[in-house]
From TrEMBL:
Organism: Nocardioides pocheonensis
Region of interest (Disordered), ranges: 1-29
Listed Gene3D superfamilies: 3.40.1190.20
SUPFAM superfamilies, per database record: Ribokinase-like (SSF53613)
Protein name: Carbohydrate kinase
Pfam family, one: PfkB
Taxonomic placement: Bacteria, Bacillati, Actinomycetota, Actinomycetes, Propionibacteriales
Top-level taxon of origin: Bacteria
Length: 292
């Protein structure tokens, strides 16, 4: 759960120099973004996290509560400020560099996620910014409650520290994250390593090229839509993950949920906000129907 600052360079990017541009501030964080997207799509959401006992934390919680997100599991920290993420985008909206200050999230430990927090849950979404011991704890209690789990590794460094992921239903890395997690330079070997652990779906993200669903039975499904008009790529992966879980919760098979999710990401890159404020299930379904 972060406050995001997005800085967009107006012209060509000049490394090592001051670049003219515009900045904006918004609420962010992978877990928070997924929660907001799920709520806007119509799924009930319970969020666990940490924010500072500061104005940013209060603003984050107030906005989520307006969307009926259950924030009872969010701890206020007196000694760590609310997290921040600063992203520099080029004039096409592509990420140049990002800086994450995750001290509050780093403090979220197993004790912050009691077993009862998963009571009644249909799915658990884990943000790879969490500590490995917290992720391991969440996987263990999800297994006890028979709750399927989706995990976004969020980056190469975070992916490399994850270790084994027993009981994971869907893993959503890009190429580099998958290789870093598996400790190999062979993409096929990395996927086999995942399925050998019991991971049912490796959803390989491929940026502007789309994504590919790899299931344990050896099937591969490429999810490709026509190029989207890009305003800002920030948050597209979070919308994709949320939409996927939203439709799995509704009973869709994996591939059908993946297509719905792809359309949600397509819509989000065309929005100036990290989470598209007009996002609805009907909008995503209509967009997918028009594009396919």
């Amino acid at each position: 759960m972060n406050v995001d600052t997005l800085a967009r360079i107006s012209g060509d990017t000049v490394p090592g120099s001051s670049n003219p541009g515009e900045t904006s501030t918004a609420h962010g964080g992978v877990g928070r973004n997924v929660a907001e997207n799920l709520a806007r799509l119509g799924s009930p959401v319970r969020l666990v996290g940490v924010v500072g006992d500061d104005a940013h934390g209060s603003d984050l919680l107030a906005q989520l509560r307006l969307l009926d997100v259950d924030c009872a599991g969010v701890r206020r920290s007196a000694d760590r400020p609310t997290g921040t993420y600063t992203a520099v985008l080029d004039h096409d909206g592509a990420l140049v560099i990002g800086v994450a200050d995750m001290a509050a999230t780093d403090s979220l430990g197993p004790n912050d996620v009691p077993d009862a927090s998963l009571r009644g849950a249909s799915w658990l979404v884990l943000d790879g910014n969490l500590r490995p011991d917290t992720i391991a704890h969440c996987l263990a209690i999800a297994a006890e409650w028979d709750v399927p789990v989706v995990l976004d590794p969020v980056g190469v460094t975070k992916a490399a520290r994850l270790g084994r992921l027993p009981g994971l239903h869907t893993f959503t890395p890009n190429h580099d994250e998958l290789l870093a997690w598996a400790g190999t330079d062979d993409l096929d070997a990395a996927r086999e390593h995942a399925h050998a652990q019991g991971i049912e779906v490796v959803w390989l993200r491929e940026g502007a090229e789309g994504s590919t669903l790899h299931t344990g039975d050896g099937r591969q499904t490429a999810l490709r839509l026509p190029p989207a008009p890009v305003v800002d790529v920030t948050g597209a992966g979070d919308a994709m993950l949320a939409a996927y879980v939203h439709r799995l919760r509704a009973g869709d098979p994996v591939v059908q949920a993946g297509w719905f999710a792809t359309a949600a990401a397509w819509l989000t890159v065309g929005s100036p906000t990290t989470v598209r404020h007009d996002l609805t299930e009907d909008l995503v379904h209509g967009t997918l129907q028009d594009l396919r």
